[in-house]
Amino acid sequence: MRILAFICILSLFSTAVRAQEADADALLRAAFDNWRAKSSDSEVTMTVHRPDWERSMSMKAWTQGDDFALVRFTAPAKDAGNATLKTDKGTWIYNPKLNQVIKLPASMLAQSWMGSDFSYNDLSKADDILTEYTHKLVKTEETGGDKIYTIEAIPKPDAPVVWGKLVVKVREDGVMLAETYYDQDMKVVREMTTEKVGEVGGRDYPLVMVMRPADEPEKWTRIETSSADFNIDLPSYLFTLSNLQNPRR
């Protein structure tokens, strides 16, 4: 029995040592680098499912660095032209029917985008989790031959964020597998899971990601990436208010 207990303790110690070898900050940065790269150009379909209806929208998305993102809807016709621009100066939306550009206050960035379960921050791939949270590696496991890391992110003091905690699962090659969102009372509010990983733009990538509210499991929103290019040159005018309203691309 003493030998068995010693083996169990040694096993737990070895697991802790292996966990310490991986850096939580670096793992999260790798996941965002894989997701966004230095720049990206992608085509995406978003499907919003509700118990009594379902609709799909197509969009083009561009990102550059940590601060710049542009997403423009291309279909269906009633949604085409709607766009969101994020820069280091703020976030704006454009409604082509009104021909109006509106700057969103920070308080609205966590709200639903186009009636989906994703927020403005989600679809612009905001990196608040990297800058406004402290990170701790809480679990390391192997699934299907891949090492999976679970990282807990806690807001820094006075950080301007809405979540009480985030828990992220990242594959060892930087593919994001899941993200669970907790409110200030540490209750799960929603969960995003990667349902398909495949190669796009020369890298393994979360091709299908689904967001589900915790208290309404019959509702979900699926994001499917059909094509993407990474680390490409993008024109300087792309992330401007002028291009948001009068698109050249």
TrEMBL record:
Q: Which UniProt keywords apply?
A: Lipoprotein, Signal
SUPFAM superfamilies in the record: Prokaryotic lipoproteins and lipoprotein localization factors
Q: Which residues form the Uncharacterized protein TP-0789 domain?
A: 66-245
Signal peptide start and end residues: 1-19
UniProt-recorded name of the protein: Outer membrane lipoprotein-sorting protein
